[in-house]
Amino acid sequence: MQRDLLEKQLREYNVELVRAIYVGPDGIARGKAFLPGSIDDVLAHGLGLTQAQASVTVFDHLPPESQFQPVGEVRICPDINTFQVLPYLPGHARMISNLNTIQGDPWELCPRHLLQTFLDRLSERGLVLRAAFENEFTIYRNVNGNWEPLDQTNCFSSAAMDMASPYILPMLSALEQQGVQVEKYYPEAGHGQHEIPIRHQAGMLSADQQVIFKETVRGVALANDFRISFMPKASPDSAGNGCHIHFSLWDKESEQNLFYDPNAAFGLSELALQFTAGVLNHLPAVMAFTAPTTNSYSRFVERCWSSCYASWGPDNREATLRAASGFLGQESATVNVEFKPSDPTCNPYLALSALLCAGLDGIDQGASPGEPVMTDPALLSEAERESRGMRRYPSDLSVSLSALEADSLFQRQFGESRIQDYLTMKRAEIEMINSLEHAAEQTAYLFRF
Ligand code: GLU
Ligand code: MG
After folding, report:
1. Counting atoms of ligand 1 from 1, which one is nearest the CA of 340?
2. What is the DSSP string of 154-195?
């Protein structure tokens, strides 16, 4: 966005406060707000932030053993191209930010910078990532002072659409006003669970739109006296909130979808298969970023549509990677791969970086994902799954973190410092959760993301 256009919007919408937000390694959108009068100063110099914030857990705890302590500073540097007036909060605007060093260079711990380095690597190969995050979330309404899920109806229920309409319509409108293209809407299987799939976007915008999506859905709720939970397993006895990632690689020049091959089985190209194989080969390390909370692992229940076993398959909604069939006559535009073991507590920049790190390795190795799985892996015997290499997902976050620690590809490509920081921070989070009564995990995460 041009500076003069931004000025026009600040005046036209009577903006009184602009927030510069970033998503740190913990996955929470945080930031600092400033008055519009200082916008040039902020764009030129950024806002101050303690380095320690990269090591702070979702519970705002700074582990004493982490490498970043209260001495040392970085800058929150808003990206002018992400400026948006908030349609659901009059007087407010938002910019998404990078974290830079005080010298103005990309900071080694900034998640948005990391994604940029992977996107640049793709670009050197003539490739562009297109991706969409597909969030499920739980709507809570206030019933006599208690927050309760909005409905207890069925998946895709028309009755649930009636009940949720006053909550959903303002969300759809606010998303569209910010350039997030809504593709569909439907109630999901869990109590009060709803889903708004959005259109895929290229590169950084796909991750930025995930931030805008969550900010908007939560913000619309707060402005209208209801609340949203993005917690992976908000109700222990009903379906979890996933955030599947749909992705494909496109040719930069011809703008063709390179995951599509009309002559290949399921229309899925060799490139897509190699990428899929790379993700499967590094799955537990990838999941350290895509299923990043202790609660994430409660979601992986057999026959709950969340997937539980490392596998891939065409239109298989219990596989880790679903090769999504193209729509008739639009195959080239619509063939994509859906990654299931991710949820809305993930940092979208780290999640996409993790997928690219693993997927590009699959391409470099010319890896094969093996035979597709044509049934629900849960219906196979343990011996069958084992013979086909369909491993059960890590049982909890600590297992994924250990896999990440042992994954030399991730150590190299994410950087040892970033991995070390992440492991320390996440292990402190686990310790905190373990110190709570079991039921308290629910309250600790419920409205945090
Ligand atoms: N709620 C399911 C999950 O936890 C996903 C349902 C679906 O959209 O297939 O991932
Ligand atoms: Mg769904």
Report:
1. 10
2. -TT-HHHHHHHHHHHHHHHHHHHHTT--B---EE-SSTTEEE
**Ligand 1 atom 9: residue of nearest CA:** 305
Q: What is the reported pLDDT for 262?
A: 96
The pLDDT value given to residue 29? 97
Number of domains comprising the chain: 2
Burial class (CB in 10 A: 0-12, 13-18, 19+), 380: middle
Q: Which of 188, 230, 307, 308 to mutate to test the pocket of ligand 1 (most atoms within 8 A of CB)?
A: 188
Cβ atoms of 312 and 276 closer than 8 Å: yes
Report CA(33)–ligand 1 centroid distance (Å). Answer: 35
How many whole angstroms from 136 Cα to the centroid of ligand 1?
A: 8
Segment 163-210, tens digit of pLDDT: 999 999 999 999 999 999 999 999 999 999 999 999 999 999 999 999
Give the domain extent around 272.
Answer: 117-445
Residues with CB under 6 A from ligand 1: 136, 188, 239-240, 242, 299, 305-306, 317, 340
The strand pair at 336-339 and 321-324 is best described as antiparallel
Q: Which ligand is nearest to the CA of 240?
A: 1
Element holding 307 (H helix, E strand): none
Structural domain ending residue among the three candidates 60, 78, 110:
110
409 and 394 in one domain? yes
Residue 343 pLDDT: 98
Distance 237 CA to ligand 1 centre (A): 14
Do 132 and 106 reside in the same domain of the chain? no
At 249-284, the pLDDT tens digits run 999 999 999 999 999 999 999 999 999 999 999 999
Model confidence at 322, pLDDT cuts 50, 70, 90, reads very high
CA 435 to centroid of ligand 1, rounded, Å: 30
**Same domain (yes/no): 52, 123:** no
Last residue of a domain, one of 85, 110, 135: 110
Among candidate residues 440, 210, 203, the one with its CA nearest the CA of residue 345: 210
Name the closest ligand to CA 299. 1
CATH code, domain with 441 = 3.30.590.10
Q: Which ligand is nearest to the CA of 316?
A: 1
Task: Determine which helix (DSSP H) or strand (DSSP E) holds 375, and give its type and residue range.
Answer: none
| Residue 439 confidence (pLDDT) above 80 | no
If asked whether residues 341 and 423 sit together in one domain, one would say yes
Q: What is the mean pLDDT of residues 423-435?
A: 95
